[in-house]
Specification:
By secondary structure, the chain is of the alpha+beta class. It has four helices and ten strands; from the N terminus they run ααβββββαβββαββ. It has helices at residues 4-22, 25-40, 121-134, 168-180; strands spanning 58-60, 66-68, 94-97, 100-106, 111-118, 140-147, 149-155, 160-165, 187-194, 197-200.
Length: 201
């Protein structure tokens, strides 16, 4: 069975043929044009496909941004100025002075007294003994003196000793390692530093 859509041009032809018997040639021409339009544009025909759209071309800006060809690149961000150079300050005029320190021990109570900030060794030792006696020591003796460095007094289960180094951490670490190599119950009894003193002119 034929589709109804395909019968429409045929019915139109038959109708036009009947009309041509009673109408003159102008009507015949009109009927032929009308029939041709029906045949060339049947009902339900799909429109022709659209031509493919062209993909716009892109170009790369100096900063890496992609923009359509022909457009302006975005303005670059303002440049941050570098920090000003650090100007080294000239050293202050002056001189370094040695710094003496000393430790005194009260053998009766095992009390330790440490002093620093002296220009001579003898002055540091005398000050340590004086401070030991002033603290109530009855049997104060000189223990140790040092200059421009740090010390640590390490005590084990059998003896005690002093260890010196440029930094107090090094003095403590070296002293404990030395104690633990031959003793037990090693501990730090005292640590102190007497760094050199700068005296400006």
């Amino acid at each position: 069975m034929a589709h109804p859509i395909c019968l429409r041009p045929i019915q139109a032809v038959r109708t036009a043929a009947k009309s041509m018997k009673s109408i003159g040639s102008p009507a015949l021409v009109f009927a032929m044009v009308f029939i041709g339009s029906l045949a060339s544009d049947p009902v339900g025909a799909k429109p022709p496909p659209e031509p493919p759209r062209e993909t716009p071309a892109y170009e790369q800006c100096p900063d890496g941004t992609m923009v359509p060809k022909g457009q302006f690149c975005p303005y670059p961000p303002p440049r941050v100025p570098p920090p000003p150079p650090v100007i080294a300050q000239p050293p202050l005029p002056g001189e370094w002075r040695s710094n003496w320190g000393a430790v005194a021990i009260d053998t009766a109570s095992a009390r330790l007294v440490s002093v620093t900030g002296f220009a001579h060794m003898s002055a540091a030792e005398a000050a340590a003994l004086d401070d030991c006696r002033a603290a109530g020591g009855l049997t104060c003796v000189f223990g140790y003196s040092y200059k421009d460095m740090c010390i640590a007094m390490i005590e084990g289960d059998r003896s005690w000793f002093f260890e010196s180094a440029a930094h107090v951490e090094d003095a403590v670490r070296t002293g404990l390692e030395r104690c633990r190599s031959g003793q037990a119950e090693c501990r730090v009894r005292l640590s102190a530093c007497a760094p050199p003193i700068f005296i400006p002119y």
